[in-house]
Amino acid sequence: MDLREGTNDIESMEGLGMDVERNGSGFEDEKEAGMRQPLLLRKRTMNTTSQIAIVGANVCPIESLDYEIVENDLFKQDWRSRKKVQIFQYIVLKWTLALLIGLATGLVGFFNNLAVENIAGFKLLLTSDLMLKDRFFAAFLAYSGCNLVLAAAAAAICAYIAPAAAGSGIPEVKAYLNGIDAHSILAPSTLFVKIFGSVLGVSAGFVLGKEGPMVHTGACIANLLGQGGSRKYHLTWTWLRYFKNDRDRRDLITCGAAAGVAAAFRAPVGGVLFALEEAASWWRSALLWRTFFTTAVVAVVLRAFIEYCRSGKCGLFGEGGLIMFDLSSTITAYSTPDLVVILVLGVIGGVFGGLYNYLLDRILRTYSIINEKGAPFKILLTITISLLTSCCSYGLPWLARCTPCPADLQDQCPTIGRSGNFKNFQCPPGHYNDLASLFLNTNDDAIRNLFSGNTDNEFHMSTLFIFFTAIYFLGLVTYGVAVPSGLFIPVILAGASYGRIIGTLLGPISDLDTGLFALLGAASFLGGTMRMTVSVCVILLELTNDLLMLPLVMLVLLISKTVADSFNLGVYDQIVKMKGLPYMEAHAEPYMRHLVAGDVVSGPLITFAGVEKVGNIVHALRLTGHNGFPVIDEPPFSDAPELCGLVLRSHLLVLLKGKRFTKERVRTGVGELLQRFGAFDFAKPGSGKGMKFEDLDIQEEEMDMYLDLHPITNTSPYTVVETMSLAKAAVLFRQLGLRHLCVVPKTPGRPPIVGILTRHDFVPEHILGLFPHFNPHK
User: Fold this and answer.
1) Given the DSSP bridges, would you call strands 719-721 and 741-744 parallel, antiparallel or unpaired?
2) Of 255, 288, 675, 686, which cross-links 294 as Cys (Cβ 3.0–4.6 Å)?
3) Nearest-10 crossing angle of helices 84-132, 285-309
């Protein structure tokens, strides 16, 4: 774990008598001193907040990532020795990996669509054929039975192989890109379950999408390629040694997340903007260019495969092109009265979105109690929701009345043997059931039906109201089961439904087509739940190929986001917080302005000398889970005690394993180290491959020998003075992507370091635990 191992460590430290008194700050102002009174009375204690979090549906320990470049003597020597050929190779590899991520994500996106359309299509055709023979009960058994088998299979592989694959995965990817790591977030097993679990879950008729899981899938593909494969599954590539650091992996995973959105929505520009607006915490122009290249590759791959499928070689998949829901044929002309309707839609979207997020939070907390009981309960919950969904999808269309087919229709009505707008269900020839046309279809086809233009009278008002209510609540209860599930599709379905309702009600004062109202309703609900504006706007325009709607979509998104922000956080921010992931926002909390860096430093602090006894290092590594240790030079290596830098736990383990010890307390220098090690020996390995303390084999006689830490010590760590505002320290920590921030004393004559700030020291639970009288909002 990141800096602290838990209560055992604390007890061990207390047993050693290592409780360190807190340094008072010596304030002149009595009022200010009074405000800090609890601090002065408090002993420095171990911070154990935010050490575990929920990843998918699994509770696991978390660590921070090292985005900082470790500038030690070894790194400098290696950097100086690199030739132009190696630098060129590194740049070529960056672009090659971006290309491979785009290709792989595009292939997975196509496979997902192909599999879902064929599996769900077979199930729906089987149900339809039985309905045509008036075998209604047999049709229900076939429909619910197929759904049950698919749902149970999805839940079983998720619960037993990779619980981290449950849910959309966007909160986990967002947390990873913020600097939070957990063992299984991007593991190969998570990738496997994410792909097949998503196909099975969507095919099972659940009210969920494959779009969120595609973002996680893209990130997993990028991680697998970037870390040089997987040693556990015997897939390794040694030539990727240049990317064995968190900084380069972060950039690749950002490209992967963007590629996932591009593959899911066939929206390459929307993918780049999604990564920029929602996923990434750090961004720069070079990354923008590479991300854009990756999503362009995805678009080309999808275009090629969809053209291939138009000839009918892909079974039931092949209808539609790169544009999912084409609205470009609809004539878009709007006037001032239409803005009133946009205002109404925006406000409704904001209210419904805020309510959706509130209810989802409550449901996820309830589900977490069930999921904690083990895999069988996860599968049982999934089966229960599957039965509920099947009953609604098959039962509710019986409430709808049969509608005669429109006379001037070019399409087949009722639709038999394929997906379409007009489902026969129980109706006589020449009639269709409009509610069945929405429920007994794939989610993509249901959205296509709602978005279709020049269909003002195709769906009754009662049909749209029943469908909206069912989708709204089924979407809530489905997200949180142990199946890879996205929120985009349920939100678009519900939004498009009430968009059509509003369009029908306010039709007399507006000239817009009801299909366009469905699009604006979907935009308003997306803005109300996800609180994204730019990326959602571009994704919707790329989905529908209707650029003329840009001003209206922008307006409705801005209104719905503004309204919803007054109620609660966006859905992904809310889930990140609920899962216990110590996510650092770009801004500091208001109460941090009342504190200084020295107020929240936790201890006890363990430091090493520049040339340290092996026994002391082994003892410290055994007793603590710290990942960073200050190195302090003392006489005879310096005139007075001074902070030399920071040494990482992983580097210490490599050095101890190499056993380059000396009997005398002398500096050996970087030359001696390079005879035994290369710079890549200290590079960060992939997930789960790192060296552990248990791997060491230090003999008793070696414990009294010495080890020179200078060559592997980061001699330029970021430091702040203890009196710096905690708010400024938090912003600095977040913007630089740090794991450790050294706090140094303001006055001379004291030890050269006061403590180390980590991500966990900025967590509200820790700070408000130290200062319970603080108002978290002021």
Assistant:
1) parallel
2) 255
3) 40
Apex 572 CA angle, 450 and 770, nearest 5: 160
Q: Are 385 and 170 in contact (CB under 8 A)?
A: no
Place of tokens 């919707």: 540
Per-residue confidence (pLDDT) for residue 34, from 0 to 100 = 37
Cis peptide bond N-terminal to 636, omega within 30 = yes
Dihedral angle computed from the Cα positions of residues 367, 369, 370 and 374, in that order, rounded to the nearest 10 degrees: 130
Query: Cα dihedral sign for 185, 65, 685, 225?
Result: positive
Residue 208 · residue 218 · CB < 8 Å: no
The string of pLDDT tens digits covering residues 411-436 is 667 666 555 567 777 777 777 788 88
C-alpha distance across the termini of the chain, in Å:
32
Which two tokens mark 50? 């935010």
Least confident among 118-122, 170-174, 552-556: 118-122
Span 103-123, pLDDT tens digits:
999 999 999 988 988 898 889
- DSSP secondary structure string, 436-447? HHHHSS-HHHHH
For residue 634, count CB atoms less than 10 angstroms from its CB and return exposed for 0-12, middle for 13-18, buried for 19 or more: middle
Q: Give the residue carrying structure tokens 């839940």.
A: 155
As a whole number, mean pLDDT of residues 10-29 equals 36
How far is Cα 415 from Cα 121, in angstroms, rounded to an integer? Answer: 13
State mean pLDDT over 2-7. 38
| Domains defined along the chain, listed by start | 84-311 (1.10.3080.10), 590-770 (3.10.580.10)
Closest CA relative to residue 423, chosen from 442, 408, 407, 348:
442
Q: Is the pLDDT score of 320 beyond 70?
A: no
Question: How far is it, in rounded angstroms, from Cα 284 to Cα 656?
Answer: 38
Q: Give the residue among 735, 740, 732, 734 at the shortest CA–CA distance from 716.
A: 740
Q: How confident is the model at residue 604 (pLDDT cuts 50, 70, 90)?
A: confident
Alpha-helical runs (H) found in 246-335: 246-265, 268-274, 285-309
Helix H or strand E encompassing 487: none
Q: Confirm if 109 and 263 have CB atoms less than 8 A apart.
A: yes
For residue 315, the one-letter residue type is G
User: Residue 321: pLDDT band by 50, 70, 90 thresholds?
Assistant: very low
User: Is 317 in contact with 111 (CB distance < 8 Å)?
Assistant: no
